[in-house]
Amino acid sequence: MNPPAAGHIATASATADSPSRPPSLPTPDRRLSRLPIAISSAPITFRRLLPPGEKATAREIVTGLGLHERSGGVPLAGTPSGERERPYVALNMVATADGRATLDGRSAPLSSPADRALFHGLRSAVDAVMAGAGTIRTERYGPIVPDPERRRLRAERGLAERPLACVVSASLAGLTPELALLADADSRVIVLTPSPRTLPAVAAGVDYVRTRAADGSLDLSAALAELHDRLHVRTLLCEGGPHLSAQLLSAGLIDELFLSISPLLAGGDDGPLTGAELAERQRTPGDRSPLRILAGTALPSPMQLQLRSALEHDSHLFLRYLVRDGG
How far apart are CA 105 and CA 273, in angstroms? Predict the structure, then answer.
C-alpha cells in the first residue's frame, strides 16, 4: 500500500432530445441533480476470515495489533544478543491478484477506501514511517499524519502526534524543497543515506542517519540501529518501494508483512515505463518486467511466511504475515 490518490467513475449522459435515448424512457427531472447527495459516515468494516470473528473497523483491527504498545527493540542480527537493537519493522504493500505493484507507474490505482483506511490506521500506530526517495517523489508524499483526529489518537496511544518520516536515498537526488513532505514545517524528516551531501533549505525539520557499507551503499542494519538508539524508534512501518523492500528482507530486517490484494488482473509486457516503475528500473537496467512488491536481486533464500490474519472488504483481501526468517 502507498499514499492514496482520489479516484472517480466517469459516467456519460444524454440530453432529453438525444436520438440515442430510447423514446420509451422518461425525461429525467433535472431538479433531482440539485438535490444533496447522501454520503454515509459509517466507518468501513472488514470481515474477519482468519481467525474468524465479528466484523471490525480499521481502528479496531490496528489497535488489536498492539504495535503502539511495543516497548523494546529487536536484537540486531550479527551482533551479540542484547548488544544492539533495531526497531520492529512492518512492511506494508499492495498488489494486483497477478502480482503487479503498480499501474501506470503508481500504486494508488490499486488502492480502495478500505485499503486507505488500514494504510492510515497503520501509520497511526508506529513511531516512524519509511520509504525510498523514488516512492516519496512518485507517490507524492505529504505530511505522514495530516488528520488532527488521527494525531489525537496517536497521543492517546502514547506516541508523538506526528511520526518521523524516514527517507532512504543513495544520493539525495530529487529531494527538492517543492516536495510536499519537505515543504511541511510540522514534519520531521530523517534521511537515511551513505552520502555526505545535505538537502537545500526546506521547511521541514531534517536530520540525517549516515551509514556506509563496504561497497559504498547504505548499511541498512546500522541505519536502523541508529534509528533505535539515537532517535528512539521502536516501531517502523516501511512502505516500499520494491527494491528497498527486497534489501530489507535480504538483511533480515522485516518482521511482518501487510499485503493488500486488489481484485484486479493487470497483465504486463515490456512497454514504456513511467513513474515508480521507471525510477525503480533505473536501478536494474535492462529489466523491463512489471514491478512486483520485491525487485532487484533475488533473496539469498526464499523467506518463510506465517499467515496470522486475513480480512476482506468488497473483494479486496488484507493479509498479515509474520516473516519467520526476519531476524
Answer: 7
